[in-house]
Each structure stands twice: as C-alpha cells, then as structure tokens.
Amino acid sequence: MEARYNLKSPAVKRLMKEAAELKDPTDHYHAQPLEDNLFEWHFTVRGPPDSDFDGGVYHGRIVLPPEYPMKPPSIILLTANGRFEVGKKICLSISGHHPETWQPSWSIRTALLAIIGFMPTKGEGAIGSLDYTPEERRALAKKSQEFCCEACGCTMKDVLLPLKSGSDSSKADQEAKELARQISFKAEVNSSGKTIAESDLSHPFSLNDLQDNIPTTFQGATASTSYAVQNPSGESLQPPAPPVAKNTSMSPRQRRAQQQSQRRSSSSPDVIQGLQPRDNHTDHGGSAVLIVILTLALAALIFRRIYLANEYIFDFEL
C-alpha cells in the first residue's frame, strides 16, 4: 500500500502512523484502513456498559478527506443499533457535518471513543440519529454480534478482545464518556455563539452604531449644519440687481417703466431665496447651479423688458 501513496503527504503520514497505533484490537474498539484504500477505514466498537447498548458490538466505516487531519472524517454505521442510522453519515461534532468544531489534534481513536460516548445520548433530531425504545436497542445489541461485514470480512464475535472486568476497562469507558461530554460542550458553544472577540469582529458594521458613538457636541454641530449656499463670511449668496441705465431726460413713460423694472429687480432676490432648497440632504453643487441659472434667466428677462420699453418709447417719440 505504501507504494501507491505519496509518503510526503501529511495525510498519508498521519494515517500510516495511526494505522500502526491501532493495529492491535482492544476490548473496546478496533480500526484499520482497507487494503486498497488508506482513506477508508472500518471500525468496530463495543456498546457502553450500563446502557441500552450493553453487550452490543457495532461496525462501521470512517471516510477521511485528503486534507486530513485538517478536516474531519465522515462516520457511517453499518450495524443496526437504534441510535444511529445505518449506511448514512451521522452528525456528530467530531464528524464532517461540523468542521467548525473539529481539531487537528483529534484522531481516529478519538472518533471511536466519541462514538462509544455518544451512543447513550439523545439524538435530538440530528442527521443520522434515531431514538429507538430501550427494548428495541437491547434486542439490536444482542443481534449485533451476528453481524459480518462483506467489505472487510470481519465478524463481530472475533474482532474485539474479550471484555475485561478491571480498572483498564472502566478507565476506557470513563474516557469515552468524558470525551463525549467535552466534544458535546464544544459543539454547544460554537452553535450557540462565538466568543466575545469573535462576535465583535463578525458583527456587521452599521452606520447607526457609528452615529450612536459620536460625541454629543459633534452630533449637535452636524445636525445644525445648513446645506444652503453660503459665502466664507457666512451670508447667503444673493443675485446682484441688474443695472438700470440712468437718464436725467426721461419721459414720464420711461420713468414708469424704470420704476416697474426696479420693483421687479428688488423682489427677485426674495423669490430666488424662497426657491433655495432647505432640505438638509440637498447637494451643494446642485443648489449653486440652480441659483445661477435662475439669476441669468431673470436678468435676461429684465433686460429684454427694458430693451422693449426703450424701443417702444423711441418709436413713440418719432
């Protein structure tokens, strides 16, 4: 098998090391890769004592990704047990369904102990979980010893060592329970919320939050800012009054025309000032352009009226 894989690959190195460590079965678990596939392992675990799975021996597959141990494996049970679905990737915080809780320091042995520790826990609707009655699980535990895997040829009666009734056996059971508790706790922390630092970094940026943090004095200055066009002295720009030609020898008709034009020119700044936008959201440049256009149009209209009035008077005198 070594000739088929790149021995410099971190995943291959890690899996070969773990295969050597797990070569000899124990009374609680055993796992080895298939002869033709280093990335698919078959495992056997004993049901935890003092539970509905006591006396059961369960077989399954572990499919490892090429990025192992940076990414978690997928776990599939092949023996009916009443806790995990058969032939389906089960959802555990140590499996491929939860890559966010996986740690590269965990190993296949960790996964085996986690399976043993998780078996007595509630499924709670997780993917690949079952909630059989205790009677059904006990019946499946007895029947599991007759299971034989067609892929690896393992018979459950002969895979594991006889169960020891000593400190070593109780120590392994306690290790499995503690590991399941730690992994479950880590999954709950990650699913319920991140740490404070992570939450702060992942919190979406909001302009409202920024505005809430602005000092009161700065907010008041911002709120009182006027978007009307102003000159540097602070006075509003007013359009200049159009020049009116002075003539001491005007006729009464010319004087009346001049007076009317003066009244129009004196009232024109008020009209333009009234047209100035007071909305705080108006653009400065648009307001200035609008004022200039209106001023030019009004000036052209006044000059046109003066020109026509003078032309009319000139024709009348002739």
UniProtKB/TrEMBL annotation:
Component of the HRD1 complex, which comprises at least SYNV1/HRD1, DERL1/2, FAM8A1, HERPUD1/HERP, OS9, SEL1L and UBE2J1. Interacts with E3 ligase RNF26. Interacts with E3 ligase RNF133. The keyword Endoplasmic reticulum applies. Residues 257-268 have a biased composition (Low complexity). GO terms for cellular component: endoplasmic reticulum membrane. It is found in: Endoplasmic reticulum membrane. Residues 10-160 form the UBC core domain. GO terms for biological process: ERAD pathway. Catalyzes the covalent attachment of ubiquitin to other proteins. Functions in the selective degradation of misfolded membrane proteins from the endoplasmic reticulum (ERAD) and is essential for cells to recover from ER stress. Plays a role in MAPKAPK2-dependent translational control of TNF-alpha synthesis. Also acts as a platform for perinuclear positioning of the endosomal system by mediating ubiquitination of SQSTM1 through interaction with the E3 ubiquitin-protein ligase RNF26. Plays a role in male fecundity through the interaction with the E3 ubiquitin-protein ligase RNF133. The chain crosses the membrane at residues 285-303. GO terms for molecular function: ATP binding; transferase activity. CDD domains: UBCc_UBE2J (cd23799). Residues 228-280 are annotated as: Disordered. It is a single-pass type IV membrane protein. This is Ubiquitin-conjugating enzyme E2 J1. Keywords: ATP-binding, Endoplasmic reticulum, Membrane, Nucleotide-binding, Phosphoprotein, Transferase, Transmembrane, Transmembrane helix, Ubl conjugation, Ubl conjugation pathway.
